[in-house]
Design brief:
It is built from 2 helices and no strands. The chain is mainly α. It folds into 2 domains: about 55 residues; about 30 residues. The protein is elongated, with a radius of gyration of 30 Å.
Length: about 90
C-alpha cells in the first residue's frame, strides 16, 4: 500500500481511522451544501408564488377600470399611505 505524505509515520490502524474521519467530514460538508441548496431553491419558488399571487390580486383590484380610473385610484392609494405613515410617525414621536 502506497502511503501519502499526510499518512507518513502512522500505523495502518491510524491511517484507517484518519481516512474514516475524513470521509465522515466530507459527507457532512456535502449534506450541508445540499441542504442549503435545497432551502435556496424552495425560497425562490416561494417568492415566485407570492409574486404571482400579488399580480393576480392587483389585476382583481383594477379589473374593468380604464387607465384614467386606475391612475386616479393609485393616486388615492398613495395619498392614503402618506396619511397613515404621517399619523404613525406623529404617534411614535409623542
Amino acid at each position: 500500500m502506497e502511503l501519502e505524505k499526510n499518512y507518513e509515520g502512522l500505523t495502518k490502524e491510524e491511517i484507517i481511522v484518519r481516512k474514516k474521519e475524513e470521509d465522515e467530514a466530507a459527507v457532512m460538508i456535502q449534506s450541508c451544501y445540499k441542504g442549503r441548496k435545497t432551502r435556496k431553491v424552495a425560497k425562490a419558488k416561494k417568492r415566485e408564488k407570492e409574486k404571482e399571487f400579488a399580480i393576480k390580486e392587483l389585476e382583481k383590484n383594477y379589473e374593468g377600470l380604464t387607465p384614467e380610473q386606475i391612475l386616479e385610484r393609485k393616486k388615492e392609494e398613495a395619498e392614503a399611505a402618506v396619511k397613515i405613515q404621517s399619523r404613525y410617525k406623529g404617534n411614535k414621536t409623542r
